[in-house]
Specification:
Layout: E1 2-3, E2 9-10, H1 12-20, H2 22-55, H3 57-60, E3 63-65, E4 68-69, H4 70-111
Helix pairs in contact: 2-4
């Protein structure tokens, strides 16, 4: 058993019922709709970068602008992509995940006071 925020103890049956609810399933589906494509896209981009590093080092040494090479552009792109995905997730979670998670939590707290 685990205490909730108010110190009330909820049994495992409460969590099992919450997990089986339509709202919780919708919350999981919304999470996966963002996480799976974002993860697949980022991993594809990362493996492309690593693959080019291993099998096409000459290509990555190509000068893009002055002394700036393609490898530096792609490496910086990895950081930019990481921050962009994080920003998109924060926005997505704030709009699509957090409101539903708050509803589920409030319903659970109301039912166990």
């Amino acid at each position: 058993m685990s205490p909730d925020r108010a110190g009330v103890t909820a049994g495992p049956d409460v969590w099992t019922a919450a997990e089986a609810s339509d709202d919780f399933r919708e919350l999981r589906a919304r999470l996966l709709r963002f996480v799976l494509p974002a993860t697949a896209g980022f991993l594809g981009w990362l493996f492309l970068f690593v693959g080019l590093s291993a099998w096409a080092p000459g290509l990555l040494g190509t000068r893009v602008l002055g002394d700036l090479t393609l490898v530096l552009v792609l490496a910086i792109g990895q950081f930019v992509t990481t921050f962009a995905i994080t920003a998109l997730y924060v926005r997505y979670a704030g709009r699509r995940l957090d409101p539903l998670a708050d509803e589920i939590r409030e319903r659970l707290e109301r039912g166990h006071r």
